[in-house]
Automatic annotation (TrEMBL):
Organism this protein belongs to: Vombatus ursinus (Common wombat)
Coiled coil: none
Keywords tagged on the record: Signal
The NUP210 Ig-like domain, residue ranges: 37-123, 133-235, 244-275
Protein name per the record: Nucleoporin 210 like
Lineage, highest ranks first: Eukaryota, Metazoa, Chordata, Craniata, Vertebrata
């Protein structure tokens, strides 16, 4: 006798329906597996350029092995283990005219025949901006990284500026001395992207730099595109403020009893070392006769 609520094998089969035919099973597995396969980006916007060393972009599938079909851009598959398919490819714009061009890259998986699509556009840079995580620097502190962002006439951001040459400078101010210094990544012992390291070795500047504060004041950093074709594109500017690295110890909230006082230390960091002296803040002394409501 069967226990209540427990189906037999026949009842379970009737509940689930008849077994799926083998071709339908394979098709279902293929569809479910293909959902996980996708490219790192669905659309790519690359800048037009006439100088050598054109901007590359890495297109990558999460899994699988693909062959590509394309036009208007050069696709260089990154083969591994002598295979005829790849999971990654480098895109390079091959446009010879300063007009907006569109291309479609189709990547087909050699086993499942699943197809991935990426839309690629090549256009002219209309303007550039400087991206910074902050507008304040401290003297003798860690350097600040600045990056260029380029946009087309419609305000779309270009996917990559890797390998494109720029000219960075500190705007002159006759009323004050220079307060900032442009550094190479190798000088600051930071690890930049590979293309930036190669450009620095060739004494070129890319779309990323480091700046360091050497004395207090304000400075304007300027960048423009090096390629003559873009000489009419306005330079991008950013104003940075360099401050002394001064802070109070203790720096957290302080709660005092009536009549008590606190001694603070004003500290300053110079070349990685902390210096300073103590100050007694007598303004915080509360006379014992004050009413408690004064503290509320």
């Amino acid at each position: 006798m069967r226990r209540p609520g427990v189906r037999g094998a026949g009842g379970l089969r009737r509940f689930l329906g008849p077994p799926l035919p083998l071709p339908l099973k394979l098709l279902l597995l293929s569809v479910l597996g293909s959902r996980a396969n996708k490219l790192n980006v669905p659309k790519v916007l690359l800048p037009f350029g006439r100088e050598p060393g054109r901007v590359p972009f890495l297109l990558e599938a999460q899994r699988g092995c693909y062959t590509c079909h394309h036009d208007a851009v050069t696709v260089e598959p990154l083969y591994e283990n002598s295979t005829l398919c790849s999971q990654r490819a480098v895109l390079i714009a091959e446009s010879t005219q300063p007009i907006r061009l569109s291309s479609v890259i189709l990547a087909r998986e050699i086993v499942t025949d699943h197809e991935l699509r990426c839309d690629v556009k090549v256009d002219v840079i209309d303007n550039i901006e400087i991206i910074s995580r902050t507008r304040e620097l401290y003297v003798d502190d860690s350097p600040l990284e600045l990056m260029v962002r380029a946009l087309d006439a419609e305000g779309n951001t270009f996917s990559s500026l890797a390998g494109m040459m720029f000219e960075w400078s500190i705007a002159k101010d006759d009323e004050s001395e220079r307060v900032e210094l442009i550094l190479k990544y190798s000088e600051a012992e930071y690890s930049p992207p590979k293309y930036i390291a190669e450009m620095e070795k060739a004494e070129k500047q890319g779309d990323m730099i480091l700046v360091s504060g050497i004395r207090t004041g304000a400075a304007v950093i300027k960048v423009r595109i090096h390629e003559p074709f873009y000489k009419k594109v306005s330079a991008a500017l950013i104003r940075l403020l360099v401050l002394e690295n001064i802070f109070l110890i203790p720096s957290h909230d302080i709660y005092l009893l009536v009549g008590a006082y606190i001694k603070y230390r004003v500290a300053k960091i110079v070349q990685g070392k902390m210096t300073g002296r103590y100050w007694s803040l007598h303004n915080l002394i509360l006379p014992p006769h004050l009413d408690k409501s004064f503290l509320q």
